[in-house]
Amino acid sequence: MPEPSPIRPLRLQVQGLTKDYEDLRALDELTFQVEAGEILGLVGPNGAGKTTALRTISGVLPVQEGRVLVCGHDVTHAPEAAKSCLGWVPDDPEPFDALTVEEHLEFTASLYGVKDWKERAEELLRRFELLEKRDALGGELSRGMRQKLAFSCTWLYRPSVVLLDEPLSGLDPRGIRSAKVAIRDLAAEGTAVILSSHLLELIEELAHRLLILDRGRLALHGTLDEARRSMSALAGSSLEEIFFAATRDPDSVPEKEAPEAGGEAAEG
Ligand code: ATP
């Protein structure tokens, strides 16, 4: 995993976030933060609450309990200010059927007040291999192209915080390579990134810190080395080994088999 940079300003603060779907607690007092320029790898078994957390941070779901601050703006009390600094690429983006690829970029630029957007849009269309599809309608795009369009729109307005949910799942090998470079570059420019994925090699390659969620609870938060220390794991143990040690088998009895090494590995 890359080393995190020296302490930088906090861009995202999540405090005591709790979410229930009827009688199911999907998030249980989740607290963490992400600094400018940091890539936080969000991992956890199916149903751990990753998408619920991302949807709540992005404002798609209301905050039921707790607080989310994006660049200091509370998503409940100042949603417009919070959303203006936030970008969100869901795992299966749904562009507008009636707008072309280029019109999506134009629309995004007008929404976020991006001046001189054309040159940047051109660069992004090239970067994400969409030049040939610039006049295609949203409804005519393949899944991978929809993802590339969502990347292009998000990268266009340079948000301070970007949430990526399984960003590589629909991409071809060339697209995967471009997306990895683009994610690294985005963080290098100072954006705080949450990268949620089941691809542990991707997390190990790109993320500076980890957040392992298990059944709505924070199981680990910190660098891989901090996670190893917190789990009393051998030096050099892989993220996969840490993941299995920190999370429970879905068929296990929750209370009896909970690992003792859960909790914050370190302050983020
Ligand atoms: P995956 O890795 O499978 O995408 P996840 O970590 O993103 O999972 P969530 O989608 O956040 O998990 O789901 C967390 C829990 O909340 C799961 O038990 C899921 O069944 C439940 N859940 C999610 N959305 C709803 C909903 N709209 N209504 C009821 N329960 C829901």
Written description of the protein model:
Helix 3 packs parallel to helix 5 and helix 4 runs antiparallel to helix 5. With 268 residues, the chain is α/β, with parallel strands linked by helices. It has 9 helices and 10 strands. About 3% of the residues have low confidence. The longest helix is centred in the C-terminal third of the chain and has 16 residues. The chain folds into 2 domains: 178 residues, 3-Layer(aba) Sandwich (Rossmann fold); 66 residues, no CATH class. The strands form 2 sheets. A 6-stranded mixed β-sheet has the order 6-7-8-3-9-10, sandwiched between helices. 33% of the residues lie in helices and 24% in strands.
The total beta strand count reads 10
End-to-end Cα distance, whole Å, is 15 Å
CATH class of the largest domain: Alpha Beta
Order of helices and strands: EEEHEEHEHHHEHEHEEHH
What is the beta-strand fraction? 15-25%
How many domains? The number is: 2
- How helical, in percent, are the residues? 25-40%
The CATH topology of the largest domain, please?
Rossmann fold
Protein structure class? alpha/beta
Largest sheet: 6 strands, mixed
Per CATH, which architecture of the largest domain?
Answer: 3-Layer(aba) Sandwich
